[in-house]
Amino acid sequence: MKKTSLFIALLLTVSAIAFAQENKNVWMPHGYQGFLEMNSGFQVANDGYSTTGVSTTHGFYFNGHTYVGIGMGLDFCDIYGDNSSDVIIPFFANVNYLFLNNKNISPVVKMRLGSYVGDYHGTYGDLGFGVRFGSRRDFAVTVMVTGTFYSKLKNPEYYYYGEEVPAENREHNISTVSLRFGIEW
């Protein structure tokens, strides 16, 4: 999975650079924009179990720098370390800030706040820092490092391989650090 993620990152970076021209030809973001993103990471406090996910966000750029939108995702988390995928569906409000909107390459900050449902439910938050590779057309590629917060998962009564789990082991922190690749159109 890591080799695949690295290959995709390299491919997206090379594609963005190939589209890039002189700064005067960079498309300035405005109005409606959509994002499609894929992330791959690991859970910080849960023995480094893996997570993968996809998300989409739709909204508007204001003043060429600030983007506000709403979105949803689909995250697959290995909570118990047994190579099973628990599904978490976050719904969120999204705010991006693009520092250099008239340049081919620009730093970007992204923040998401919302909640998640699925196999579990709770509060969701996400903060990411990265680089946006713009093009002459209404298209860009983004590579980011993100930290994602999920409120602790609580299972009041559950069994693991037929045995009841003690109360102190019924909470799981699945907050993650991940690498996120995205396209913007």
H/E order of the elements?
Answer: HEEEEEEEEEEEE
Number of strands: 12
Terminal CA distance reads: 26 Å
General form: elongated
Strand order of the largest sheet: 1-2-3-4-5-6-7-12
Plain-language structure description:
The protein is mostly beta strands and 185 residues long. It has one domain (2-184): Porin (Beta Barrel). Helix content is 10%, strand content 57%. It contains one helix and twelve strands; from the N terminus they run αββββββββββββ. An eight-stranded antiparallel beta barrel has the order 1-2-3-4-5-6-7-12. Strands 8-11 form a two-stranded antiparallel ribbon. The two termini are 26 Å apart.
Q: How would you summarize the topology of this molecule?
A:
Elements: H1 2-19, E1 31-43, E2 50-62, E3 66-77, E4 86-98, E5 105-118, E6 122-134, E7 140-150, E8 153-154, E9 159-160, E10 163-164, E11 171-172, E12 176-184
Antiparallel strand pairs: 1-2, 1-12, 2-3, 3-4, 4-5, 5-6, 6-7, 7-12, 8-11, 9-10
